[in-house]
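Reminder to self: keep the SMILES exactly as supplied, no canonicalising. Ligand is calcium ion.
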Amino acid sequence: MGRFVQFLWSSLACGVACVASEDCAGADCSDASAVLQHKTKAKGRSTHSHGGRECSKPYPFIWDNDANYDDTLALLYLAHSENLDWKAITIESDGMGTPHGGPTNIAAAASLVGLGDVPIAMGGLSSLSPIATMPLQWRLETDEFFERMFRGGILDETDRAIVDLTAAQLIVKILNESACPVVILTTGPATNVAEALDMDPSIAGNIHGIYMMGSAYGVPGTNNVYDWQMTYNGVKGSCTEDGGQTYTGLSPPLNRSGVVSAIRPECRGVDMTAHGDTEWNVFMDVRAWHMVYGFLKDLPADHVYVLAANATLNMPVTLEEMEEYAATLADPGLRIFVTELAKAFLAAGEAKWWDAQCAVVMDQVLSGLKQGVCSNWFEDKLTSVSLVWRSNLTDGELNPYGSVYDDEDAHAPPIDYCLDGNVTQMWEVYWPMVNQTG
Ligand SMILES: *[C@@H]1O[C@H](CO)[C@@H](O)[C@H](O)[C@H]1NC(C)=O
Ligand SMILES: *[C@@H]1O[C@H](CO)[C@@H](O)[C@H](O)[C@H]1NC(C)=O
Ligand SMILES: *[C@@H]1O[C@H](CO)[C@@H](O)[C@H](O)[C@H]1NC(C)=O
Ligand SMILES: *[C@@H]1O[C@H](CO)[C@@H](O)[C@H](O)[C@H]1NC(C)=O
Ligand SMILES: *[C@@H]1O[C@H](CO)[C@@H](O)[C@H](O)[C@H]1NC(C)=O
Ligand SMILES: [Ca+2]
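Structure tokens returned for the bound complex:
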């Protein structure tokens, strides 16, 4: 859709019914909780101009995620944002959460933080470019963590909010019907968003802003897809030759010495630690990222934001810190939940704040506080997502697959990349907000 048509459409759609969500306009939605949330807030724009009409906070909001530990940490914060009018939670089935467990796990967490009525949709089973998943063992451990929380009475098991529409159908429906442009946060492989845009490309015109967690853009050497994540207990279980299948690893990897094997070592013959130039959310569905960039290419600046891997490098999750901050939480159930979550997260290998940081950064951008938990933006970048796979690499050569690189001819909108994080401010902003549960 051309820019003109798109904005004409947005302004028409918005002109009629936006009044309904104007309650907060101008006043910055200030009540007690907003004061906590925005205590460092500069006087920012509180309305968003679309084709000359105003649609105000709270913005219609869809959170697309893959039900991982850091997604859950994001939820604990997002639940209290005054910027968001929750329309849906859509779960990626090809990320960390298992296809069956992810949705009910997030449903339980949503219920804990008072979002039990937000519709939740399950995602399609496969990545659009299947090559790797999180190791099955980690995915099952996530389910086990939530199950312990059910048994311990910390979370309630519930499937009440789960709807019949698929994630992509629900995203299309909301964007098609919303009178005001919608904010989307995607903290997973982005498969659902790509499928929705593919189903109805015109919905791109009703996006207020899309915030994406992922990529190793901007800083060489920030790849976080490692070879050790490809095997678990000596069994190949993450990057399989047939990406679409889940290899359950009943036997050890084949010993190739002297035998013809169907399975190459590492990730299809590539040691991703040495040759990777990507990040897990992109790597799990490179085509989805490529499609999202392409479908959004007519969006103007300040609509697409990506938090790249470098921004979280200085934000590891540590048990000491989690215990220290959890102790400040008023709600005893939440205290246990956060501490146990940190333990489970740390058991899965590398644990960083990724999605939770992306959530806070989005919230700050929506509050007019772009410079905050994100302390370094690369703005208006024209970039491409590479679909090219190379296996036979020399020392130091990188596999282009899943890399995001500067490209004047990119089939993509101008994107703002967040490349550095302010840890001090993250703690200052995150914990008081989370503490509103209970
Ligand atoms: C919503 O979808 C319907 C049916 O596909 C279409 O006719 C209509 O133009 C769409 N509305 C908007 C605002 O995109
Ligand atoms: C693989 O097989 C070779 C013989 O073909 C043997 O020498 C080697 O120890 C085996 N390696 C493992 C890890 O089993
Ligand atoms: C890998 O590339 C080298 C040249 O760089 C070539 O000699 C070799 O045959 C290639 N290996 C495969 C498996 O294609
Ligand atoms: C990348 O992260 C490092 C460590 O947190 C930081 O020092 C550096 O400035 C960041 N790079 C950019 C381009 O922001
Ligand atoms: C990080 O945030 C703290 C507290 O909000 C602030 O005092 C500091 O100036 C910020 N640092 C940078 C580099 O932006
Ligand atoms: Ca995630």
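Points to follow up:
DSSP finds 14 helices and 15 strands in the chain.
The longest strand covers residues 84-91.
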